[in-house]
Hints:
This protein is mainly beta and 923 residues long. The strands form nine sheets. It has a 22-stranded antiparallel barrel. Strands 5-4-7-8-9 form a five-stranded antiparallel beta sheet, with no helix packed on it. InterPro entries: CarboxyPept-like_regulatory. Keywords: Signal.
Amino acid sequence: MKKLLLLTFLFLTASGFSQNFYYGNVSEDGSPIPGARICVVNTQRCTTSDFDGNYTIEVKIGDQLKISAIGLESTIIRITSQNIQKNDQTVDPILSDDYIAKLKKPTDSIKISKPSGTFAFNLFDGFGEQYLMKINRDAKHFYSLKYKYEYNKLSFEASQELMVSSPIRMQKYQKTYAQGRSQNGELVYQSPETNEIFSWGPNVNSLEYSGNKSEYYPQGNIVNKTFGNGNALELYNPNDFFNNGMDNKYMLNTQIEGTKGNIMRINLTYKTGKISIPTSRNNEIAAFVKYSRNVSKLSKIETILSYDDFENNLTNSNFAVNKIVFANAVTPIHFDNNFASTLSNGLQRSYAQSENNPYYLLQNNVDKNKSKTISFNFNHKYTKDKNWNSASASFQSSEIKNTNGQSFYTAGIAAPNFNERKERFSNFSVSDVFNHTIDSRGFVETKIDFRFQERKLNRQYFTGFAAPIDFPDNSLSQNKFDISQQRFEVFYNANVSYTFRDILSYYEQLVLKANTNLNYSSTVKGKFMPNFLASAEIKDLFNESLSITVSQSYNQVEPSLQNNNLNFNSLRYNVSQFKELQNNLELITPKNAIATQEINTNLSLMYNFDYRWNFNFNFYNKTVDNLYVPSFNLNTINWSPDVNYKENGVEFEIQKTFDRRNLAYSFNLNFTHYKNKVTSLNNNQSSIPFAGFADVNKNYIAGQPLGVIVGNGYLRDNNQNIIIDNDGFPVEDAQPKILGNPNPDFVVGFFNSLKYKNFTLNLSFDWSQGGEMWNGTQQTLNYYGKSELTEQQRNISNYVFAGVTQSGAVNTKTVSFYDANLPVQQNRWTRYGIDGVAEDAIEDATYFRLNAVSLSYTNNPYFNYGNRISYTISLFVNNVFVLSKNKQAFSSNAMFNSLDSSGLEYFNAPMMRSFGSSLTIKF
């Protein structure tokens, strides 16, 4: 049975807390699989493998990657610092019975009435082997047998997968108070015409509809009771805005295998889906053709052609999703956004001119994405005796088209804008790999790879629209950004491994490995980048299944030409400017780039007990210099190698397998603990923000862990007592400070698989302990008076804040959280602005989650030769439940769907619980 070989390795740690650029390869029997889909489980971070099967994706330790390829079952791998740990899911290519079962079972008898021919074989032995396909008799009455391998084989596979996702851990909103504020000692309702943004008004039970209908309220304008028609207000739950997500996947595969080993495989896949935001949709069409044949007994050729077409009508390339969630969340509970999004005069229908209607943003959405990728690979393999050689040539071309912008009458936008972004990326490679086996104890392998890359980026900004009818096609001014980058690379690799046996006694073995690379790049400073790896492993120590491995590696890596993480644009804006966010700056890899350097030291122990228990322990230490980060300079941004840091950690894993007749159980329990610290910043910088906003962000600061959260807090005296102002409220500190560390103390994963006959049950748990996150959503909802917290606490009075006065005395002044005799801007929450005090928004990020449950049934055709059709039915649930201190925000639900912004929550798309089923039929 062929297996999908996942060659993957953790190579370079990059920006973000414990963030890594994970470099992997997907191949089958040594042949690369282009177009494989790789996604971080429970996120929208996805990528595809290139023509060499290579891929790069942003991850953090403890993440799980789901790898899917057309015609192949999916697998999930877990990210650790040292290696990949698979769960119990397997990755198998298309399999079928491949032949027609025309014979009876060998226990049956064949009756021959009289001798009628000549037999040159044992007839019943042929039946028993289960490979006999046909019996022929020629004109001379001589019988011959036709076996399975003498026929062309045709197999099919069809599958369909449906997944429905429902939002969970939703925000909790107040259900009592109307749009308005305090005036002259009373809580006064303010209509949309007043452009009131707050929900600090009177109780909705004191209001009713009048007989005067309007475009804002078709039931009648809202007035105080006794002035209306007696009809109570209709209330709307903001959480009803979200839809269930849905994903459908259809796949058809066929394989034709000839009698001489030539194989053609054709795979077609169609995917369609939508997220929780209304009107969203995405579509993907993929095709894959592979042909291989044996040229001779010693050589084989393979060709692979793949095509992928993907489109999405609601990307978050211009923060559209977060803005839509924001607009929905702050709307007063009695205002129906869905009734209409536009007024008769063409203006936006929202509850205040300075706020957006989420449906207006959807109807005027221009954030779209469309991408196409085509790749071709040719490979020739030659094997003789102890030598093996593979020569290949590959080409890949991709085109990505993005549009985004803000239309007329969008709140927070002074002038409409629109931009088109086109990126073309091509790659051509020729390589050769030679492997020589040394007397069954080792091998020597060399590889040389010539590669040419080209990236063309064109971006046009359109502004100065005269009228709504001109948007987005006719603008008065344009600003073009056009850049072309080329890179020529040569990779030379030498790899050797040799095993010394009986080093201490009869059982011990010493395995020495060395790997060295000398890479040339036309765009790196100095042109050459050396890399090496050396390891020593002692196996079967003390006559036990105990292994100890020590390894040391040094790597230099040049940043890629392609840098599509554009969410650093938000760093130019304060939280209060959220509605103004625009994504119009690009990161460009500089010419003569400095290579990022990484040194890794690993110590691993592996022990197998009774062939059922496996224990693995790994300690690692690494240092990274010249890590690339976004660096702002006035209105430009550079991709600059400015961060140096170190990290060390331990990983422990236990694997157990139990198998008895029809019942099998296995589990994998792994534990990860790590610490990291920025050792220095280049160019005399004291801190470098890399994700978030200008006033609340994640930072690189010398002497601090990676990605500490920085923002404003309360002013304190030398004894860390909060200073209270004359009004009795804490004083905000104008100077930003370190508020939290998003890195967890440890991460635990627990994977289980139970098999009984034809049923398989899989369960996956994960536990992340410690670390902090910033919940800015809660702060802003408090400011608007929309949160459940303000509903519960707005009537609190005679409250004394713990702290000292500015003179140093213990504070004794009592306050009311919301005093109707004072302006609304002076209440407990609005006095600190829309973002509040960031210190109040820091929360514990600990969580425990039942990550996934799946149950599958297969008719197991491999043990039933008379059955030509096999099928598998699966049911699964993802994000079954999550336990954490905060019931709404979730630390792994990254802002803007960027790993850099993990640990930041500001009107992120809701977390989803997914239910699904799949059916696969093979014949």
